Amino acid sequence: MSPSRTVYLCGKELHEMLIGGAVIGSISCRLGMYASYHGNVADGPAIALVVVRLFFGAFLFTVNHWAILS
Predict the structure, then answer these.
(1) Are 11 and 20 spatial neighbours (Cβ–Cβ below 8 Å)?
(2) Are 58 and 6 contacting, i.e. CB atoms less than 8 angstroms apart?
(3) Taking the complete model, does pTM exceed 0.85, yes or no?
(4) From CA 46, how far away is CA 29, in angstroms rounded?
């Protein structure tokens, strides 16, 4: 899962994907580093877990994915 796929669920415009991907990447990096520091785990898997959680959160709360599944 990448931040751009998460943004792609919400909007299809290029400028939305560029800005949204940078924002989601920054948020996931900061939250993953915070979790790895306080949870005493490795940095990479913590960041990846945050990215996956953000993706599934966007997948559950957007309407666009239902059109893909049907």
Answers:
(1) yes
(2) yes
(3) no
(4) 9
The answer to whether 7 and 21 are in contact (CB under 8 A) is yes
pLDDT of residue 8: 84
8-state DSSP, 63: S
pLDDT tens-digit series, residues 16-36: 889 999 999 999 999 999 999
| Residue 32 contacts residue 47 (beta carbons within 8 Å) | yes
How many angstroms separate the CA atoms of 11 and 45, rounded? 27
Q: How far is it, in rounded angstroms, from Cα 52 to Cα 9? A: 13
**How many Å apart are CA 43 and CA 61, to the nearest integer?**
27
Q: What angle do CA 57, 48, 22 make, to 5 degrees?
A: 75
The predicted pLDDT at position 68 comes to 54
